[in-house]
UniProtKB/TrEMBL annotation:
Signal peptide: none annotated. Residues 25-275 form the EAL domain. This is EAL domain-containing protein.
Length: 282
């Protein structure tokens, strides 16, 4: 009898937790819809550097949202909700519009990197939306780099390939983001032409202690060289990691060691100070 009660009790607690989670999701969804219509999601910009010189070569735009009641909400939380609830299109267009407006004030040899979500790679209007935003901002497509993940290629590879090919035909570069953590096969690298490969932070963070991670990074870099793809290592937090990566022939770097994501204004100030970020001492 006791056990039965406990069992029944558990069922009740469980469903209440699910109800709370569902309510929280809906609350975030509603707040996000409102924020997107009010233009309240902002791009922050994280520098990407030439590892050998520390010179900034471009910035990755990363969406930031602070709700009046919920406070700052991480993109790791709101991007998946935006995808599931059909808000990703307008959200993405808002962030790209603001990002290209900000990037117009940068030296014009710097690129802007922008993330696309998996669901945007099954929507054949994505390319048109991007191009019309660039057109309106007077932003050269050759300065834009689209970042997509292996997951984004999985659900409908044909559709994704068409979008990628169309973007590249317009001069937009395409980077494969978070490489090494998704579930796609190396065969995708043959089917798709990527301009750049971004090595996931998971490898970089253990690089100094972990021989397997070192071998994997070296293999990825040699593959990049063979396939004519540029390379960038993500999540560099220490100078020693940057040094190792240069030794291995990695071209680009990104991470807190060089700079955290910052808003448009702070990014412009950084560029006007015209310093290379943390050149590696000799
Ligand atoms: P991502 O594209 O792989 O972006 C890199 C993430 O790593 C960013 O997290 C960045 O702040 C973080 N990061 C950079 N350097 C370091 C480091 O040295 N150490 C650590 N621990 N983290 C570092 P963030 O901004 O929270 O974004 C998370 C993810 O959300 C992004 O991963 C991207 O997949 C997605 N995302 C962000 N903005 C957008 C957007 O506008 N559109 C879409 N579709 N996705 C976005
Ligand atoms: Mg990215
Ligand atoms: Mg990444
Ligand atoms: Mg990542």
């Amino acid at each position: 009898y006791h056990a039965k009660r406990a069992g029944r009790g558990r069922v009740v607690v469980y469903s209440r937790e699910m109800e709370d989670a569902a309510k929280r999701l809906t609350r975030i969804e509603q707040a996000l819809r409102r924020a997107v219509s009010a233009g309240e999601v902002e791009p922050y910009f994280q520098p990407i550097v030439d590892l050998a010189t520390g010179q900034i070569t471009g910035f990755e735009a990363l969406a930031r949202w602070t709700d009046r009641d919920l406070g700052p909400v991480s993109p790791a939380c709101f991007i998946p909700i935006a995808e599931e609830r059909g808000i990703i299109g307008p959200l993405s267009q808002l962030v790209l519009r603001k990002a290209t407006e900000a990037a117009r004030h940068w030296p014009d040899d710097l690129f802007l990197a922008f993330n696309l979500s998996p669901s945007q790679l099954v929507d054949q209007n994505t390319g048109l939306h991007i191009l019309s935003i660039l057109d309106r901002a007077g932003f050269d497509p050759r300065r834009l780099e689209i970042e997509i993940t292996e997951t984004g290629l999985m659900s409908d590879p044909r559709s994704a390939k068409k979008i990628v090919d169309d973007l590249r035909a317009c001069g937009i570069r395409v980077a494969l983001d978070d490489f090494g953590t998704g579930q796609s096969s190396l065969g995708r690298l043959r089917e798709f032409s990527f301009d750049k490969l971004k090595i996931d932070r998971a490898f970089v963070s253990v690089l100094l202690e972990d021989k397997p991670a070192e071998h994997i990074i070296r293999a990825i870099l040699s593959m990049c060289e063979g396939l004519g793809m540029a390379s960038v290592a993500e999540g560099i937090e220490e100078e020693a990691q940057a040094r190792r990566l240069v030794e291995f022939g990695c071209e680009g770097g990104q991470g807190y060691f060089f700079g955290r994501p910052a808003n448009a204004e702070a990014t412009l100030r950084l560029l006007r100070s015209n310093k290379s970020l943390r050149p590696l001492g000799t």
